[in-house]
## 1
Amino acid sequence: MQRQDGNHVRGKWRIWSVTLLLFMLLLNACGGGGASSDKGDAKGVSSETSTGASGSGGLEPVELTWYYPQWNTQRDLKTVEQAINDITTKEIQATIRLKPIENSSYAQKLNTMVASNENFDIAWTSFWMFDYAQNARKGAFLELDGLIDTHMPELKKTLPGVVWEALKVEGKTYGILNYQTITNREGFIVQKQYADKYKLDPASIKQVKDMEPFLTAVKTGEPGIIPFALTRGGSFEVMKNSFNRLEFINNHAIIGIYQDDKELKAVDIIQTPEYKEYTELMHGWFKKGIINQDAANLKSVNDLKKVGKIASVFHNVLKPGRDIEEKAAFGGKDIALVHLTEPYVGKNTIIQSMQAISKNSKNPERALMFLELLNKDERLINLISFGVEGKHYEKVNENTVKPIEGGGYDPIQTWVFGNTFKAFLREGQSQEVRDQTDQGERERPPFADSRLHVRSAARLDGNGQHSSCERPIRPWPGYGHG
């Protein structure tokens, strides 16, 4: 009798086991299952499809974390986050957790997270901070080829082909570009009141050292004002094209090329006469009191800019409208630009600002869907860039805004978030200039043009030797006006 009861119980368990197995198989077939592979590629990712603007369909709610650097703390971030989630929960059933990190700590924090295999979903990356190519090669980011067509069809059509080529690392795509100007132009950003007072003639400035008489005049005539502000990182990386057309091909090993060298011979930047000239000039300015005396320790000049304590800084992206952006950063002071180079373009000028998906993301497809939405839904890019209308900014006209003083949110970094051409204009910026710039970028020739690009990203082999390089620069007349 006991044996018969045991057989009966075992029979029931077999029936339940088969039923449970069939149920699990059915769930797996419907949901797609799977997680991202440890190798950072697209294998094993589930088969959610983009819902676009039509709503979230039958998607399960998820939470996504998004890490990015910030140059100014935003005290009303939570209000903006909630407004973003009012949209994303409806459109793609995703709650977004914004995780801004102070810019000077960003790379260290994210590299630590990657090294410890910590889970996150989206992270901002670049060639110059939290290195895009380096992290892609070591498997920190999910390979996106094959997923972009399915989950970002509109964004793929929106961005020029040259962008998608520039995003490739050893033939694979690991990032989504925050589309902005893809050209660089180096020069000084100067408070206009001092440029006017001391009769600075931008056309007379051909080299960095030509600014010294003006800076000396500011030093003598403006007590308490820093003539030229510098941080502990120095400025050579953004001045490099102003010094004999040097180009970095590996930021970590500080290796570069002379752009006019047909042999593309790699050089140690530190050993070049141009770098020696730069260090001697900066040291001389420091001794003369032209440069802030805390430069060796200063992480950021933003607080000093905001209160008008700085007469000039150097920048490598003097794009059209830069003077208006910097006016906001300089606390409302009018700005003059002094261009030292012609506009130029290359792989590194394109991959300056991107979003990548962590290989450990539990919801990589939803993360892509969010980035697609962020780059096509103007409500989102304007929320993250300017905040909430009436609380953080007010409209000047349909497409132009100005921040509300003391509103608590004005990061002034649309380029960190997404497609800048879809965002509002800041008061004083020109729609015509923006349209000219956008058109110029889209008419760029492809990287296949041998005058522009030599294939393969710069890197070091396992022995620390330079193994390949690119020559990614030439002037580009389609930059726009400014």
Note: The longest strand covers residues 62-70.
## 2
Amino acid sequence: MAQRKIDVEPVEAKALETVRDEMALQGKTLDDMTVDSGMARATIGKSLTGFRATSVSEFVALCHALGLTPWRVLRQAEDAVRAQADDARTYTAEAEAKLQAVLQGGYVPAARRHEPDPLEGIGEENQDVP
């Protein structure tokens, strides 16, 4: 039975990405991380690839094995995620402002102003003659 990736929060995904990047930067393998963190190789592999949730204790052990400070990794991940959200909000606000400028620039109503029919009601005075 094939395992499926689990849904992780953006901050968690970014923090684990930082751990993976630092592993690559230091040239550490899963076997090295197993020795340095005291965690099982499969646990590390599945955590770093998103096939299992990572506990706080495991995250701390992974960070310490790489010489990272866990709270700093999480803070950087949170800042990165927040910056992406701010970029999206800024983009949306700018796009809406441009749309409003286009719509308000040369706005002409689609229909003319309604003028009442001068012949309205003529010939319908009293049709109910006995």
Note: The radius of gyration is 32 Å.
## 3
Amino acid sequence: MAMGMIFWVLVFSVPLFGIVYAGFTTWLKYRQHRAMLDVLKVYAERGEAPPEEVLTALTKGFSLSEAGVTAPNPVSAGMAKAQGPIHYWSLVGLFAVFSAGFAYASWSSGLAGYPFTIVAFTMGAVAVWALVMAIGLSVKKK
């Protein structure tokens, strides 16, 4: 298989695998929730409250916030600090360097560097987005 062909196989197969995997795990979680509801439906038809052991077994590894039950804000104080302007300024630097590296790879590869050009523009766009977020959060905090 030619080197260029391997690149395109990876570019398209890895995201496709991720999409299939996400769909499969979502389907498995749906089946788990449906089975939990079936167990609770049996107790509801009998007119009984389910024992505490059954409720504990059913909710083990299950977050009520995932089910739409209102809960306190799941964002911890540490995560809120990570989303400040300093976080975005570091992303500006990171993606600007990545963009410059891929732009150089595109330039030095000649006509074969077209895929590097696409990646360089994408990284540059992310750097610009992070710059806008960093400036916006810096102005908002003042």
Note: The longest helix spans residues 3-46.
